[in-house]
Write a structure and sequence with these properties.
8-stranded mixed β-sheet; globular; alpha+beta; 8 strands; 8-oxo-7,8-dihydrodeoxyguanosine triphosphate pyrophosphatase activity; mutator protein; 26% helix; NUDIX_hydrolase-like_dom_sf; Nucleoside Triphosphate Pyrophosphohydrolase
Length: 144
Amino acid sequence: MEVVSVTCALIFLDQKVLCAQRSEAMQLPGLWEFPGGKIEKGESPEDCLIREIKEELAISINIIGSLRSNEHAYSDVKVIRLMPFICVWGSGKLKLVEHQEVKWLAKEELKSLNWAQADIPIVEDLYVNWNNIQEQLVEYNREN
């Protein structure tokens, strides 16, 4: 079975995280995800994520940490290894290039969306680790 490594960004701003709805032109249209994309040959996961967010949302991000990866099989031939990174908005004006909508959600709102299957364990992990992540964000903001 082919394993496809994919990164995703948990982009935080004002104690909320950015969630993106897949457009009709994408696979799994209408489902929600954390934005990101496939790692290209010779590319680090971090470089991939920075590139993908620039391409998909026209913003730059700063990566400050990561959460546990998750594997999900959407078919019998391919497994997605989703690698989540904790990020903050660096610069730029948000522009939807691939997604049809984005929302900034607080912890208690996360479970209200219809998430893509591969993202559900990431949502659960994020929910459990929310307070620790907020502490990391405070520390990052203090140092930068």
